[in-house]
Every structure is written in C-alpha cells, then in structure tokens.
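Incident log, structure service

09:12 report received: a user says their structure output differs between two submissions of the same chain.
09:20 pulled the input from the user's history:
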Amino acid sequence: MFQVNIFTLYPEFFPGLLDAGNYRSARVNKIWDFNIVNLREFTGSNQRADDKPFGGGSGMVIKAEVISKALNKYKNGFEKVLLSPRGLKLDQNLVEIYTNKTGLNLICGHFEGVDQRVIDKENIKEISIGDYVLSGGESASFVFLDAIVRTLPGVLGDPKSLDEESFSDDLLEYPQYTQPRDWNGIEVPEVLLSGNHAEIKNWRLEQSRSITQRQRPDLWQKYTKKS
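09:34 re-ran on a clean worker, output below:
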C-alpha cells in the first residue's frame, strides 16, 4: 500500500478530493492511504510555527525546528518532498518515479517558505507543479497526489488508458469523439467509424504529433530527438 504523510499548517484543507471518487475507492481497497500531520502541534511552548526572515523582507518563514520535530515523529524511510515554486518541475516521468515508491512524506510549504537549514539537514527534495505561485502547498499537494495515485495499479478501471494519455512518449493525446456522430453539422472523422484498427492507430498518432508540434514545441523537440 502506498502511504502518504501530509505535513501542513492547515489540516482543514484535507481530505478534499482525496476522499472522493476513485481515490476514496482506492483507500477502501487499501491501494493507498494518507495521514494528515498538523505542523502546529510541533511549535513548542511559544506556539509559533513561523517567524520573520533574517536579512529582512516581507512574509514569514516556517521554522526549521517545527519541520524537524514533525519529521522525526514519522521516521519511515520515505522520501521527503517539499512543494515549492523553486523546486524541480513536476512532469510525467517524475510522477512515475514516485508511483514506484512505497510511500512519501509530503510537506506543504507556506508563507515565504521553509528555513533552508532543515531542507539541507533532512535532505528534503523540492518539487514545483508549475511556473506560478500559489498561496501554499496544500492546493499543490492535490495536484501532485492526483497525478501519482491515479497511476497506482488498481486505481483506474482500465489501466490501458494510461498508455494513451498525454505525455506518454512525450506526445499530447489525440482528439476524442463520442455520440452523436453528427453534432450541429460537425461529423466525427470518418476513419474512427471505419473499424480499421491499424488506420485508426495511425490517424491518432498523426493527430498527436500535429497537436504536440503546435501546442508544445518543447515536447515535440524531445519526441523528435528520440524518434
């Protein structure tokens, strides 16, 4: 079972979508589970989880001692990840790396960040979900865990669907169509109605290539280098 400890200053954010749909079913079936750790329980006598940054500047910084005490209570050998805008950018390859692990200690950053000393001492890896800034790591954690949990064996009804999604083989997914065959005068591409699986496969590949080249030249460059 894939186990996640989520360290946060705002436990009221959870469980949210982590307790809905396939994610709830997967927990019931013991494919994965999570535990919410309230960082404010590790503040000590002064009851402060953060303080002003040395050197000046706006905002507050989460104290090293708070993070350290919380992690020491959950010594489990899991990798420690801090969700941070300056971290390694999340992509599908990174998602698959975490899918193959047995668990994760996930720290939700907040305010101006976390004291660098505990990041270094605890060997915490920083990961970003994109080139933008959020109010905190709690909302980012939903994106991160959604990407990981859905790829765990047994979570999705049809595991083959993972092989044809965007970013598999560095290509974006081809267009999808469903009933009716004619909608407002716009018809489904004829090849999808042909029953010729080889032609359908080729059409989908060409569509994926075209969309990737147009929408994501960075991915297209990676794809062409491998081809």
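09:41 both user submissions now match this output. Likely a transient worker issue. Closing.
09:42 reviewer note: Helices lie at 21-28, 64-73, 92-99, 116-121, 137-149, 197-215, 217-226. The beta strands are 2-8, 32-38, 50-51, 61-62, 79-89, 103-108, 125-128, 182-183, 186-187.
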